[in-house]
Write a structure and sequence with these properties.
about 25% helix; 9-stranded mixed β-sheet; TIM Barrel; about 25% strand; 8-stranded mixed β-sheet; 28 strands; 2 domains; elongated
Length: about 575
């Protein structure tokens, strides 16, 4: 049925499929509320006014809102299956998302991307999957797969994709490297997402010549205002570690608010349960002083228009009937969720079922940890006088660099006296035996070791510890369980969580995953760790495109100067 067939219903000559009576329609275009009936047929909005329906629902003064949109996220960071994530966030009002699968792609390439696409397309939401631009994130990083322009061309020929995932390798863009520009040119007619932390001036100008449209790495009002002045959209990010909403709100005003939208980027399961998803961002924005209707606007029509999602994000004739019934605007209690005019969630519970066990389980995804034999000696720090140290910044993925000199003779055991831990990355895709060693200050571990197969974005095994023996057995346990997070102490495994899907994702329900992560976090804190999100923070210490000093399986990398640097200075 085409919209032409709906004309008689819009004119009031025929009954609509569904009419909401006595509701308050949120008009995100004018930031106001309209008290009218709302008519729906064939999955689209017919209009508001006096209408009759084959089904009529009296919502008794509740608000009707467009469904929420997450403009940029990595599903892998939720650590649960796509269907488990959907059953969590759809009842919270998220009906549209733009997902960049570069985590699973760095592990399993095209196989991983297609696995996500198959499952995501079988869920009642608007699933927009990007083609990752950063597999690997840089040419020197060691991932499980390489996704060049030729392979991307094959993918977009075989399947439907929304755009090109965040272009993290801004150095490759700025220097005109063919390996990244070939991808950009291939995807020039698609949405191209950005990753531009602290880029400004002429450097930002050059970066934007690639046709990049948005950025979620903006952390200050001045940075946001410059990027907006140069045509970018700002994805205000509120994840588990990176929380930029409060710092960016001063940049939003009556003249430029249409250029801001919401994104979660990376959010852990315990935060999804305790806080929520995009609904949490709206509530937080309201508490920080944003008018409720504007906060909803940022989460709906702003995102739709910025991303080029036509007929989404608003309540208007011809738009998709992706709607939320909300009790009140302050607490944002979501009573019901409708996708294409069909109820898919009510009172916080999903009304649909999808079982990923019905889909093929590719071995490259479910057996993805392959390490060479390791020894305790592999984690021994070489003797020296002065060391280059990663300086961790609380609740940030950016780091500093400092130089540390022992006041006494060299002893590894003295590191923890100065809040310094050993950190290493073990290559886990090709069994090359490569291990990069470093030191990090600020994590706070006082005993034992923590290892994880989640290490953005190449997802080799990252391990942080106070001694070599615990680091070794933690890494070996990761290999034994084919991915996960492991805590070892006194040469014993204390506890762990299994993440068998690409070494990134659990097959358990979100509640069980959240409970286990909370147990692991408590253990980490009892061992001295100070950071609120220790496992996600650790994962980002291996990301060599976010300043300043990071670590890969080839060693320490100076992101700002684009060179590997030595651990021992002298």
């Amino acid at each position: 049925m085409s919209n032409k067939d709906l004309l008689s219903i819009a004119l009031g000559n025929e009954k609509a499929d569904l009419v909401f009576k006595n509701g308050k329609i949120i008009d995100v275009f004018n930031e106001k509320v309209i008290k009218e009936d709302l008519a729906i047929s064939n999955g689209v909005i017919i209009g508001f006014g006096k209408y009759e329906g084959r089904e009529e629902v009296d919502i008794e003064g509740k608000f009707i809102s467009p469904g929420f949109i997450d403009a940029h996220l990595h599903l892998e960071s939720t650590m649960v299956t796509i269907e488990e994530f959907a059953k969590t966030v759809i009842p919270l009002g998220t009906l549209t998302l733009v997902a960049d699968p570069h985590e699973i792609a760095n592990v399993a390439g095209k196989v991983g991307i297609k696995y996500f696409l198959t499952i995501g397309n079988n869920i009642p939401w608007n699933f927009n999957l990007m083609v990752p631009s950063c597999v690997p994130v840089t040419t020197f990083d060691k991932s499980g797969s390489v996704l060049n322009a030729e392979k991307i061309k094959e993918l977009i020929t075989e399947e439907n994709f929304f755009g090109l995932g965040e272009v993290m390798d801004y150095e490759g863009v700025l220097t005109g490297q063919d390996y990244i520009w070939d991808k950009i040119e291939l995807m020039k007619d698609y949405f191209i997402d950005g990753h531009a932390p602290k880029l400004q001036g002429k450097i930002l100008n050059a970066y934007l010549l690639a046709g990049i449209m948005a950025d979620h790495e903006t952390t200050s009002p001045n940075e946001a205002l410059e990027k907006i002045s140069k045509g970018m959209y700002i994805m205000v990010r509120e994840g588990s570690v990176t929380r930029d909403l409060q710092s960016l709100l001063p940049a939003i005003n009556d003249k430029n608010n249409c250029n801001f939208l919401f994104a979660t980027d990376d959010k852990h399961p315990e935060d999804l349960i305790s806080e929520g998803h995009i609904n949490f961002m709206i509530k937080k924005a309201i508490k920080l002083g944003i008018e409720p209707l504007r906060a909803i606007k940022l989460a709906t029509i702003n995102a739709a228009r910025s991303l080029g999602l036509h007929r989404l994000g608003g309540i208007a004739p011809g738009y998709k009937a992706d709607l939320l019934i909300i009790d009140n605007l302050d607490e944002l209690g979501i009573f019901q969720v409708y996708k294409d005019g069909k109820k898919v969630a009510e009172n916080g519970k999903a009304l649909f079922q999808v079982n990923s066990n019905n889909f093929e389980r590719p071995p490259t995804i479910f057996h993805s940890v392959n390490i060479a034999p390791i020894r305790e000696e592999d984690f021994k720090i070489p003797k020296g006088k002065t060391y280059r140290v990663i300086n961790m910044i609380q609740d940030q993925i950016i780091t500093g660099e400092e130089f540390f000199s022992f006041p006494y003779s060299f002893e590894e055991e003295r590191f923890i006296r100065y809040n310094i831990n050993k950190i290493a990355v073990v290559e886990r895709h090709k069994s090359t035996g490569k291990i990069g060693l470093g030191l990090i200050r600020g994590f706070g571990l006082e005993s034992g070791a923590i290892a994880s197969s989640i290490a953005h974005d190449s997802h080799n095994i990252i391990v942080l510890g106070t001694n070599s023996s615990d680091m070794k057995i933690a890494v070996e346990k990761i290999a034994e369980i084919q991915g996960g997070i492991v805590i070892a102490n006194n040469q014993k495994i204390v506890d762990f969580i299994e993440l068998p899907i690409g070494g990134l994702i659990s097959t358990d329900p979100i509640g069980k995953v959240s409970e286990k992560l909370q147990e692991l976090r408590k253990i980490a804190h009892n061992l001295g760790v100070k950071t609120n999100s220790p496992f996600m923070t650790l994962a980002f210490m291996g990301l060599p495109v976010v300043p300043k000093l990071k670590i890969t399986c080839d060693g320490l990398y100076d992101v700002e100067n684009h060179i590997f640097v030595s651990l021992v200075v002298n």
